[in-house]
Amino acid sequence: MLLKRVLKKGSNYLLPYSKMKNEFGDQFSDELFNAIFENDIYELPFDKNVELIADKWNDFAEIALEDNKVYIFECCFIQNPLTIGMIKYGEQKEKIINYVMKVAKIIENLNPMLLYVEQDNLEFSFRKALKERTPEWSTGIIDYYTNQGYGKEHNHSGVEGAIKVLEARRNLELEIFDMLKMKKEKINNTKYEIDSYRSMLKDKLTIQMVK
After folding, report:
1. First CA to last CA distance, the chain
2. From the first residue on, what is the mean pLDDT of each consecutive set of 10 residues in the chain (211 residues)?
3. Would you say which domain of life the source belongs to (predicted)?
4. Angle at 201 between CA 190 and CA 61, to 5 degrees
């Protein structure tokens, strides 16, 4: 079962184990899942993660350049690099910026467009999420943001500490956003009005399509 799904890249072996767990259910034991998770691409050292993710982007860019398709991705361009670089490992800002810029360079010939979703009051948004999600999620996210990397280095703790880390992440995201030389738009969904949000998104896309 595993060997049929393994993709060999140089000396590395990639396995879509989360998809396999969903597909095979109990046949894919929790013990096996947890063992593989320890070597998840986002559990690897930062430099190794950059190497493997860049390889995946290169592979995608080669395929997408020949396709007459529109691809939509969520989180993987800015959020994921900042999460592993800043939140998990507390890497230097320049290394994190270079990570995003490396990916941007790889996909530049695809004429990408970046949509950055933002809110006016980050603290309100986070506290709203804490109320709406399970206690386990809330505990997990606060722990992830404060007990490692940037949060731990700056002695942040609890809900207030997690908010401080989120604010720092947002500041770096916006700095990177301003540096990027690609089509890009900010979408503000502070009011949580889905129809207004949909209309705003449509308008932004229309503007970019005619540029």
Report:
1. 48
2. 75 82 83 85 94 95 92 94 98 98 97 93 95 96 98 98 98 98 90 80 73 60
3. Bacteria
4. 115
